[in-house]
Amino acid sequence: MKNIPSRRLFLRKSAIATTGVLLLSSSSIANTLTNTDSPFDGYNPYSEEKTDLRISTLFGKHLTVKGKIYNKNGTFPLSNAIIEVWHLSPNSTKFKHRAKLKTNSFGEYSFTSDFPNREQGKMPRIYFKISNSETYYFTELVINRTGAHITDKHWHDNQLLKEHLFPITEEFENYSSVTFNISL
Prior knowledge:
By secondary structure, the protein is α+β, with helices and mostly antiparallel strands. It is built from two helices and ten strands. It has two domains: 1-35; 62-183, Aromatic compound dioxygenase (Protocatechuate 3,4-Dioxygenase, subunit A). Helix content is 18%, strand content 32%. The longest helix has 28 residues, at 7-34.
């Protein structure tokens, strides 16, 4: 007598196999999206183009970051350079504050955001990816209540900016303004 498996058993095994294939495929897609060349957490290459990252314009401390993107020698401003920024949202451990913007014809950029939250053991910071058709560069701007600071890596990579290297902070009642220049 020939043993013929039931139709229900066949459907169950098919459903399990299909689910496994779908889970495997979706995890591969998720790894592709999150596994970027960024040295910093929270990078999303599909950020929305905008210059105002604030969740609320009425409450909380706001921060305006502006500056110029220069060529590698620090001599000429770069127009149409793409700047991607992101940071931890206030009172959160998620990177919901992110945007993409371009420099104008003078190499200038500007965006406004809520004051960033900090990762455990670190000062609050804003992450940057600057790119053009030829290259890209990642850096970070460290922010605290007394001003803005660069990292040793940024100092090393951008020394040719000379007097434009260090960030300049201006404090106002409910917001701060930081001028932060970068070479690409």
